[in-house]
Amino acid sequence: MSFSFLIRRLAYGLVLMLGVVVLNFLLIRLAPGDPAVVIAGEMGGATEEMLQSIRAEYGLDQPVLTQLWIYISNVAQGDLGQSYFFNQPVASLIGQRLGPTILLVLVAQLLSILLGVFLGVIAARKPNGPLSAFVSVFSTLGYAVPVFWTGIMLIILFASTFPIFPVEGMASVRLRDAAWYVRGLDVIHHLVLPAFTLAIIYLAQYARLSRASMMEVLGSDYIRTARAKGAGERSVLFRHALRNAALPILTVAGLQFGNLISGSLLVETVYNWPGMGRLAFDSILRRDYPTIMGGAVLCLCHGGGGQYPHRSELSAGRSAAAGPGMSGIRTTGPRRRGAAAAGQEGANPLCAPGGGAFTPGIFQARKRAG
Amino acid sequence: MSALLEIEDLRVTFRTRYGEVTALDSVSLQVNAGETLGIVGESGCGKSITALSVMGLIPSPPGKIAGGSIRLNGEELIGVSPARMRALRGSDVAMIFQEPMTSLNPVFTVGDQIAEAIMLHQKVSPDQAFRDAVALLDRVGIPSPDRRARDYPHQLSGGMRQRVMIAMAVSCRPKVLIADEPTTALDVTVQAQIFDLLNEIQRDFGAAIMLITHDMGAISEMADRVAVMYAGRVIETATADDVLDLPQHPYARGLIDCIPTLGRADHALKEIPGVVPPLHLLGKGCAFADRCAYKFDRCDAEKPLLTDHGRHPVACHGAEEGRI
């Protein structure tokens, strides 16, 4: 990747960001609902006079283009504005909520890769066995079932039938003053269901992918060599074969990370997990425009904000780094698959280019009072 | 003296869409310590299946050892526990494959791959195993083995990779070394080097070599004894000189006539007409009958057995009745 390539990419990124900000901003004008009414409602009454003063205070009485200009120049200076609802800077609000989301997404990613690859490897050993059939059916189901439905079903199951996992929130209130490790364990306990729910879709994909990839690798000559050396079955599978089969898995893992973040919106909402997704969802309901826009901008910044060819190139680079010997031999395979996966990502409405998860997002510039 | 490796009446079948096909039928071979047995025959005649049976690496399913016995040093290998087979593989009996380009794992350095073979069978530290691997690379004639041991397979040429395979195979001083067409993928000058190396290795390590090839030149250079295979059976077996000079079976004669003679431009190169019949279409007669110039009634009616008719064992009715 040459320097001029990077500059060009960065310029594309800026243009794209500007476009998304402008588009999201203008979309609000098309959506019904008035933040002033929501704010006035929270305050206990909505006389026309009060609405007017609220609009004036928040800058909502300015022409749209003026509001847009103020917002863009603020964002350019790193100021994401002030939340209407929480009455604190959007940036610090996001800062508080980003941690839980990253925790959830990382754990879900880890869970789906570990479990998915393990299932796939085991299934590849006997491609016609019952476990292999199970993996195939489970993958199709896991990918087809909406994540919020899985979440609700798990809540029903674990709230009444087997009440062993908390089904809501991130921490127990009564443990607020407990020692740090007790609180840590409590968070892990709360994490089980959301992380598993989020992992299910991707777990299924990893299982499928690693099964296919392993089956291909297990037929190769060097696997026979490993067996001829006297290597045991476990070493053959996990040492000799998996390392070669890992390339497409790594590529997809890189691409899936963005999908996981958008998937977390639904999971966080279902489990009331105090993360970015929950914040964005609530903000949309509350017409808290600065917060929604802040979320959109953040999502955009993540990994080039849906400039997916860019990200798959990065993944390809990472794959090459993971398998030093591979560069001369199998680059075409993973790259091709990477491109296919990128196309798939483009087709997923939740992660359409431009951080589509937050696209209902709209915002009103806040005029700084006096 | 009993043979180091004895294969007796080995029968291997494969399940295919034509039903069960017999890939090896009553194959009997012996290899003595320090000896090189050449196995020759066309593609698909069962040479590699014989080798894989000894290694216990027949892909199963669809393959299956349906009968017979394989004894290594008197120990029966058929039906032995998988753990015992793993312990023997690589240490007592090792194999060199015909595709050096794809037989090494692309994601490990060659030094690590040799060291792994050592550590699987000997209790040594990883450092010691790696040092042994470097010494082995030096032994098989790889220049600057220190540096090469840290290379990945794609950084080496085909000949070098085959040397690495040989180093890996001899790393635990196997009693039997199976070389399955070790030079097929290499160019001619490298072939000669590899054969020289195998000869040296045999002298140093005292291993018995089972050399699988379809190259009669390689046989004359390497082998002490030869078994000629055709359609899953051994059809002639004798010392290398006997087979090369006085082949009994029409097929063995055909193979030897196929060797071009240097300096004789007028001499038209002979060929064996036809192809090996598909295994599922073998009748009750001799599998070679349809391609044989000496064919007579009996050839279609009954399978010839490998028996000695004066010179050395051959499976041919014509040779038995003195028609050839």
TrEMBL record, chain B:
Keywords: ATP-binding, Cell membrane, Membrane, Nucleotide-binding, Transport. It is found in: Cell inner membrane. SMART domains: AAA (SM00382). Residues 5-256 form the ABC transporter domain. It is a peripheral membrane protein. GO terms for molecular function: ATP binding. Pfam families: ABC_tran (PF00005), oligo_HPY (PF08352). Its main location: membrane. Belongs to the ABC transporter superfamily. NCBIfam families: oligo_HPY. This is ABC transporter ATP-binding protein. It comes from Pseudodonghicola flavimaris.
